[in-house]
């Protein structure tokens, strides 16, 4: 039985990985002579942060509970952490500053109003992700772009399992390496937010055991959430699609994120999305939007593209 992730281990490995990526010349230090470790040494990092070697060593050993906010800020600046990485450091070192980390997460449940919103987004593929990147809800157009998730057992409706373990799902991403890195980075952020989560630890353990790609990327300790960007997809019928995405947190459901996709006006991808939308409209006939069946019925009537 999984017992969750060890926060001290996460903190120690995160700091070591961030220190290792900095070259002495990046921070104005001499790189002469043979170096025993990649990147900066602990002594060099402590000097840059303006703290004693012993004090920084305690932090890198995972004992960050007594570290002041000022010291953590100084270490973050010395390591040149991004905004997401800075927040990740604080979640690992001082979890009490981010609420009760021992609180039992509520059962993941998509509000009916959110599902109605998804259904109302004509011409916009959209879905909602919860903790661990579980897919909680989606609209019909999303099934034509990403595959029919309703055919999967609930446990398998998870973006990380699909991207790392499903050959059919992986084949839909033209920029697979970037997509995998995004997935790993989000899971790393969640590991810092809920290190005690046994389901998250079990998922990470499963992916580590079954996927070489996941093991490789997980070791990098990347921590970030992209709120927007561009996704290059490969549709089995229409070919390549280039879609912009927006990821928005749902107020009142802090662990849930609404993700929408759209194509640039006048682009080939916009024309392809119009074709997909038209195919969906023909399946509903003259039904009004208020007469549409519920989301599960939508999924059952979606014209499924050929499997890649």
Automatic annotation (TrEMBL):
It comes from the Bacteria. Transmembrane segments: none annotated. Residues 39-86 form the HTH cro/C1-type domain. SUPFAM superfamilies: lambda repressor-like DNA-binding domains. PROSITE patterns: HTH_CROC1. Residues 286-295 have a biased composition (Polar residues). SMART domains: HTH_XRE. Residues 284-308 are annotated as: Disordered. Coiled coil: none annotated. This is Helix-turn-helix transcriptional regulator. It comes from Streptomyces doebereineriae. The lineage of its organism: Bacteria, Bacillati, Actinomycetota, Actinomycetes, Kitasatosporales.
